[in-house]
Design goal:
Layout lengths: L8 E2 L5 E5 L2 E6 L2 E6 L5 E5 L2 E5 L6 H22 L2 E8 L4 E4 L3 E5 L6 E4 L4 E6 L2 E6 L2 H13 L10 E4 L18
Antiparallel strand pairs: 1-6, 2-3, 3-4, 5-6, 7-12, 7-13, 8-9, 9-10, 11-12
Amino acid sequence: MSKIGKRPIAIPEGIEAKLEAGRFLVSGPKGKLEMMISPLINATLEDNKIVFKIDDVGNREKRSMWGTTRALANNLIEGVLKGYEKKLEVVGVGYRVEADKKNLTLTLGYSHPIILVIPEGIEVTITKNVINVSGNSKQIVGEFSALIRSQKLPEPYKGKGIKYSDEIIRRKAGKVMKAAGS
């Protein structure tokens, strides 16, 4: 039995949820999202709750999809209700970040600026050296944040690069110089 899969998801007020032909549609104050439900999973809407079931608990593939599907559906509901947000810090002398509606421009010490196209449904705001990525889809917010971070990973000696605001970089000591003539 899947501990996560067998728990029903309560649909809060202000959220409209529908099941149509293998798709789960959710709309709320932060927008609309949808996901495909695996044919291995049976989903039903029962008095303001969505319940996921499988017919063969012994089948390993069905069990694994059961918990995953329930978690993804819960993420959709959370996304259209509250939204998701990731903060990244840009650490380094001369590193600059600029954003307009469609593009994010990163100047990170390379010979050229890096231009990233902001995905639809994602909002990027910049305050000083902090990039705030927000949107209603947990997956897209996480993927775009990871793409930004991958442009200049934080290095362990001086800590320069792009890091998540809650990330801790383990620092290393630099080379130790020996005294001359020893």
